[in-house]
Amino acid sequence: MPAPGVSPVLEVNISADLASVEVMHHGRMVTIMRNQHQGNAINPEFAQTSRKCPPFCIQPIELAPGVKTVAELEVLHYLRQVSDGDASILVIDSRTPAWVEKGIIPGTVHIPWDALDIGKSDPAAVQDILENQLGATQRDGIWDFDSAKTLVLFCNGSWCGQSPTTIKGLLKIGYPAQKLLWYRGGMQDWESFGLTTLKPAGK
After folding, report:
1. Residue 96: is its pLDDT beyond 60?
2. SS3 of 159, please?
């Protein structure tokens, strides 16, 4: 048995010095690791290469000035921080429910892009999300983001506009760019590395 906090020895590690990551997901600990079957192939849901553009156009690497683009190791780092009790961070799955049904990244929170589509979604619902999930406050009709959480947002991949729409909307109302991170590769890249996914609760 490995010592507490030490990853077990695996043939397919996440990186040279990281075999797996433990994250909390809906009150239970889940191990994120790569699929150990070296013949494993990508999920067919993400094998399609030529989705119609628009709307499924290739996104830039820099979404907006000050918004950092991250990849899998950084996402795992933030997921681990959240699981360790850091309430100042939220990793958000911006996809629509139909996509979420196909699989989710453990430790993430689902806030669909169309529920947080600034200027288009129900204003009361948007206010509820901003205040009760993202930690923003409103004073005299002006949003204050001093205590707002750092958000890591993603959707289906570099061809998906769901999380970019959310990020751009948040920027328009003053959410600080330095508190927004974008996992551009999203579920397609996550699946391509054979990283752990789960079905939503009750599925």
Report:
1. yes
2. coil
